[in-house]
Amino acid sequence: MNIVPVKKEQHQNLKLAKKRNLAHVENQHIVPVTAREFAQAATSYPIVIVKDPDSSRYRSVAMLGLEAGENLYYGEDKWNAIYVPQSISLVPFTLGLDPEKEKTLTACIDLDSPFVGEDKDDALFDADGNETELLKSVHESLGRVYEDEINTENFLKVLLENELLMELELQLSLNTGENKKLVGLYGIDEKKLQALPEEKVMDFHKRGLFIPIHAMLVSVGQVNRLAQLRNTSDNPAKVSGIHFRPVEETK
Q: Contact 6/135 with Cβ under 8 angstroms?
């Protein structure tokens, strides 16, 4: 990848392909999702929390596969779900630091993307050097992404402060006779959620926190969709049994 800030001086003639696909995540089994997306994402994907192995930071993700490197939603240049997480739909754009302005985020583009080039379809700047409606919409979308990421960090902080996260383990039984486990996943602890004091419940309601919480809880059922997608794929290791359980129940 060659990700650089979008600048009129360097990218006056740069264009974007009208037709783009999601091949860049065909080998990803998880992708980031923000709390604002949970309700929509829960209709297609299991939503879980994972812990960054290099830090103590938690992040929310949608599961696209049952094993690392497996994306069950992408195939034959198509996406097999109605909702596409915003973290992957904005390709080849992303947020990045502006080297000319300290601590300032700006729209960046991957110059190595097959969707970018002077021979493509839609211009980023017009003949006078002004941003086109396309680039303006990209700026707006990236701005929403930034706000959503901040809000999601605050949401996860609330879950941690109230000890509402519990570690989960996804157990797979395959028709090959092999059993596999996917670990390092976290979900909502329903018992602790139900035990919240009344004043905390009222606070959560006022802040709209129950919407993403309930979406997460409902989304766990989508692991069955993952199993169904695996079993209709070309993968020879079909799923004969699947269980999403708290770690303490598996010991």
A: yes
Strand order across the 105-110 sheet: 3-5, 105-110, 93-97
Angle at alpha carbon of residue 189, lines to 183 and 194, rounded to 5°: 170
CA-nearest of 153, 26, 2, 152 to 88 is: 26
Strands 30-32 and 165-174 come out as: unpaired
Are 169 and 250 a contacting pair, CB within 8 Å? yes
- Of the candidates 93, 73, 92, 70, the residue with the CA atom closest to the CA atom of residue 83: 73
Q: What is the pLDDT of residues 56-102, one digit of tens each?
A: 789 999 999 998 899 999 987 789 999 999 989 888 898 887 777 77
**H/E element, 125:** none
Q: Which two tokens stand for residue 143?
A: 């701005």
Dihedral sign for Cα 2, 30, 34, 89, please: positive
d(CA 1, CA 188): 36
- pTM here is 0.88
Query: How do 122-123 and 15-16 pair as beta strands?
Result: antiparallel
